[in-house]
């Protein structure tokens, strides 16, 4: 990873807890699915998936969830808001589209995101669209409630690209929600009951990633065909003994 000065282009609140941040950079290349690190003046270094695809350079998009005003994420947003430029380190991560998995011609590519894990999966999806990829790609995005959905404009555009599928699934649907609801893995398995020839990229919290992987493995997905940044820093929690 190299240290880069990024110009702050925009900081937008796009739902009660999520900020969309646009940066402009020079002299950076990255693979769809990689991340960057925001370097704070305190010395803290905070990683965020790059939510834009490589063809959108020199602009980078981040999605930052701020659930608590005292959180590290809140410090990141305030730092970016108060400066015309910031220091980042990039690119990082090996959970990306150029890792060789496409060479195996998988039956399906499953792109699975929970919450702001959306950023990494959006980058992968957008890159495959840009490359006119001809295989089967299914994007599943899980959120707690309909109010948690963001990036509506992007979703509307993405739905127009009919060769790929894109589904938003909420746990608590409410009266106004007419889309899919339930657990994220249930939607994946309803559409793909046999995953033996599929590959998956999963982005989200540690619990979400491993919980989803456990369910997909039961239907034939091999660990070798599943990719997540979580694997690099968090071991698989022990499964309960039944």
Structure write-up:
The chain has 2 domains: 2-92, Translation factors (Elongation Factor Tu (Ef-tu), domain 3, Beta Barrel); 101-233, Rossmann fold (3-Layer(aba) Sandwich). It is 23% helix and 31% strand. The protein has 6 helices and 12 strands. The strands form 2 sheets. The protein has a 6-stranded antiparallel beta sheet. It has a 6-stranded parallel beta sheet with strand order 10-9-8-7-11-12, with helices on both faces.
Topology:
Elements: E1 2-15, E2 18-24, E3 35-39, E4 45-49, E5 59-65, H1 72-81, E6 85-92, E7 108-114, H2 118-130, E8 137-143, H3 152-159, E9 165-170, E10 180-181, H4 184-191, E11 198-203, H5 206-217, E12 226-227, H6 230-233
Parallel strand pairs: 7-8, 7-11, 8-9, 9-10, 11-12
Antiparallel strand pairs: 1-2, 1-6, 2-5, 3-4, 3-6
Keywords for this entry:
oxidoreductase, single chain, Elongation Factor Tu (Ef-tu), domain 3, 2 domains, oxidoreductase activity, Rossmann fold, 6-stranded antiparallel beta sheet, alpha/beta, MRET, 31% strand, 242 residues, luminescence, 23% helix
